[in-house]
Design goal:
The complex is a heterotrimer of chains A (about 100), B (about 280) and C (about 120).
Chain A (H helix, E strand, L loop, with lengths): L1 H17 L4 H20 L5 H15 L3 H28 L10
Helix pairs in contact in A: 2-3, 2-4, 3-4
Chain B lengths: L1 H11 L14 H15 L5 H6 L6 H10 L5 H13 L25 E3 L4 E3 L1 H11 L11 H11 L14 H14 L10 H5 L6 E2 L2 E2 L12 E3 L4 E3 L1 H11 L10 H12 L10 E3 L1
Chain C lengths: L1 H28 L3 H12 L22 H4 L3 H9 L1 H4 L17 H11 L3
Helix pairs in contact in C: 2-6, 4-6
The chains are: A mainly alpha (about 100), B mainly alpha (about 280), C mainly alpha (about 120).
Chain lengths: ~100, ~280, ~120
């Protein structure tokens, strides 16, 4: 009986903690954010806030705040993707404004 | 068949065969367009006005600046810089032996295109090259002894017209074009390019700040900025500007940043160098 | 036994955070849409645009006035705020507030609610 109760305890506890972010989820999210930032940087297009968000995600992860870490990492990744999209568009379409072009 | 395939492969190489519909204007043609723009915007502007920049548009700030210029903080830095510049290396050689005319009266011609490397070289880089060639370590480009020496060298060029040359060399032209691209590229979450604040918006205000016209800005650098509490080169200001718009700044002393300085300083060609200067 | 403890612990957490978030929201709910929109406009738009109620407005952009008359189609105003580079097909300095994630759709609607009072 005690063994059965112990098994139920372990299983329900892991079900409960499984609702929160797992360690691998957080590490993967941070790695994805860093990769996205590297891509944006490769086009000289990174944003300042993204590095801060990644740092905060790593700090939250180190403190065991997995949900916060995941949220921050995903926000950082989204930002870096927007930054890259803008930089890529600019590479193809940059131009002086009409008033600075030859007539 | 082999030759057809080779031709196709050649055309597919990046940049090859991708001729622009309209040829890029030459740097001189650009300069004419740029000067015309500000002649129309500010028909009464003298060389002094161009150098005054944002102080043209705010009486209060201009008087504060004029008061500071009675005893400008940069004078102390120029003295320090002169001493440093004239101090020989451990091996007995001097900076003067590395630089054209001993470094005197040349600052207004930098950055230059270096035919040996095919890249742009700033005066700061030339100073560091001199150090390393004589067994000394390179100095930090943005703070400390190097900007101090830069301030002294700039002082010896005071009043001389800025003269940034783009020689007839495809590599120089490519560097100029790269700098131009960086200048006109939107960056940061707000998508601001350098041109957004300093052309159409020159003379207007964002938040509490009046915006300076692009032509004339470079005449004031290196500058002692109260915000820094120190003398700094123009690349330090470029970095601050980029951070202000939320963009990760380019690295000082490297390709993109040097090309940007090459393009941007050339905008002020012909205007008397007014460096070092003070800004708050 | 363990499962019951875990369940009530979880419920307390969920209910507690619900209370907290709604407590904060209750303070927001007291503000009307127009008031919320004004707060956003003062923080985001005043840097460049003058409008009634600003004290340190910038001058780089046109003043915001008679907005309902000038922009009767709400969707058009939304598109300008979301991405003016596309909506006005120009070299405009105005940031793509929506596209670059500076505001979300709900915030744009609140800003428009405020703009329509100008």
């Amino acid at each position: 009986m005690k063994t059965l109760l112990a098994i139920i305890a372990v299983v329900s506890l892991s079900v409960h903690t499984g609702l929160a972010a797992g360690d691998t989820d957080v590490q993967e999210a941070i790695a994805a954010a860093k990769a996205a930032q590297k891509k944006a940087d490769s086009l000289q297009g990174g944003w300042v806030t993204t590095d801060d968000l990644i740092k905060q995600a790593e700090e939250a992860s180190a403190e065991g705040q997995k949900d916060t870490a995941l949220k921050l990492a995903r926000k950082a990744q989204k930002e870096a993707e927007l930054a890259y999209a803008q930089a890529e568009h600019e590479r193809k379409h940059w131009s002086p404004p009409p008033y600075l072009l030859p007539k | 068949m082999k030759y057809i395939l080779a031709a196709i492969a050649y055309l597919l190489l990046p940049g090859m065969g991708a001729t622009p519909a309209v040829a890029e204007p030459s740097p001189d043609a650009d300069l004419e367009i740029y000067r015309d723009y500000f002649k129309k915007r500010f028909p009464d502007f003298t060389a002094e006005n161009y150098s005054l920049g944002m102080y043209n548009f705010n009486e209060d700030k201009r008087s504060q600046w004029e008061a500071i210029m009675d005893f400008p903080p940069y004078e102390v830095v120029v003295e320090t810089g002169e001493k440093l510049f004239n101090t020989p290396f451990k091996n007995g050689k001097t900076y003067a032996e590395c630089l054209q005319n001993g470094g005197i009266g040349i600052a207004h011609t930098y950055p230059r295109f270096d035919a040996e490397t095919g890249k742009i070289k700033t005066l700061s880089m030339a100073i560091n090259e001199c150090r390393e060639a004589n067994g000394e370590t390179a100095l930090n480009l943005l703070k400390g002894d190097l900007p101090a020496m830069l301030a002294y060298l700039a002082e010896t060029s005071r009043g001389k017209p800025i003269d940034i040359e783009v020689p007839d060399d495809p590599r120089a032209l490519a560097a100029y074009q790269d700098g131009k691209r960086i200048y006109f590229t939107r960056r940061g979450p707000r998508g601001f390019a350098c041109y957004h604040c300093h052309w159409e918006a020159a003379g207007s205000r964002i938040r509490g700040n009046e915006l300076s016209p692009a032509i004339g800005q470079a005449t004031n650098f290196p500058a002692y900025r109260s915000k820094w509490g120190a003398m700094g080169p123009i690349q330090r200001r470029y970095k601050g500007c980029m951070r202000n718009v939320g963009a990760k700044p380019l690295k000082e002393g490297e390709g993109g940043m040097n090309n940007l300085e090459y393009f941007h300083r050339r905008l002020s060609n012909g205007l008397p160098s007014n460096a070092p200067n003070n800004r708050f | 036994m363990t499962y019951t403890v875990t369940k009530s612990f979880a419920s307390t957490l969920i209910f507690g955070s619900f209370l907290l978030s709604h407590g904060a929201f209750a303070a927001e709910e007291a503000k009307t849409a127009v008031e919320q929109g004004k707060e956003l406009a003062v923080n985001l738009c005043q840097a460049c645009h003058h409008f009634e109620g600003t004290e340190q407005a910038g001058t780089v952009a046109p003043p915001l006035v008679a907005m309902k008359a000038r922009f009767p189609e709400r969707q058009k105003l939304y598109e300008i705020i979301y991405d003016p580079h596309v909506a006005t097909k120009s070299h405009t300095m105005m940031p793509p507030f929506g596209r670059n994630g500076l505001v979300d759709d709900n915030q744009i609607q609140l800003i428009i609610d405020f703009l329509y009072t100008l």
